[in-house]
Amino acid sequence: MSLLKKTRRLLHTYQTFPKKRLGQNFMIDEDLLRLMVSGASLDKNDVVLEIGAGLGFLTRLLSQKCKQVIAVEVDPRLMRILRTELQDLENVKLIRGDVLKVPIPSFNKVVSNPPFYISSPILFWLLDKKFERATVTFQKEFAERLVALAGTREYGRLTVMTYYRADVELLEFVSKDMYYPQPEVGSYIVGLKPKPPPFILQDKQAFFDLVQILFTQRNKKVRNAITPFLARLGIAKEKVLAVADSLSYHDRRVRELAPEDFGALANEIVKKKDILQ
Length: 277
Known about the structure:
This protein has twelve helices and nine strands. By secondary structure, it is an alpha/beta fold. β2, α3 and β3 form a beta-alpha-beta unit.
């Protein structure tokens, strides 16, 4: 039986339906699910986190390859299906709740089809955790922003923040007809692998804040876009423009700066901070 038929059968049997507000689009291509599993390079020592277990198709495949699956699902209706359909799997731990809010046991790998509407918070939540590798599906536009080049339309805060923490690879494009119900656009299976910081920062929080503020004015030159950040540091209003003009890259557009440039700019400001106040 195809996964599409299984999906329809389960939804009918349990008298439920996908909720659009929860981003419930179930992947119905088993080859793609197996590709996600193989992309994580699993073995019997791995503990895998699955965010948004849905109907349990991916969960079952994962359970065959690893020590334990921690399957998180926020929807109580789907959790009822999971508890029944996966009751034969002793190495699956089901957790009902929002992964961003409930306690999650330690894990070392992630394989997941999370709802697209929480892609950004899920990504940043993951990047704050310790794990070896993740294979995750993200909506096409979001995935392309992760690997965008400086100066392109897709390049932004998400690109820089992810680059600082992980290597990213677009593994496979997934057309929208590989889901039931179909989302509005396709997606990518994305590989994430945490890495050591590619450049040294004097103050990580200053770097994060700088990137966030500058990309609110991505098309402006740095000297103009950076003034709110300098003012936040307590630099006197009459000095802000002069300080902005003294900084490296002050005449470049924000969108043109490479991640390393943002790091160098943040370090320069941190070094000057005490003198400038």
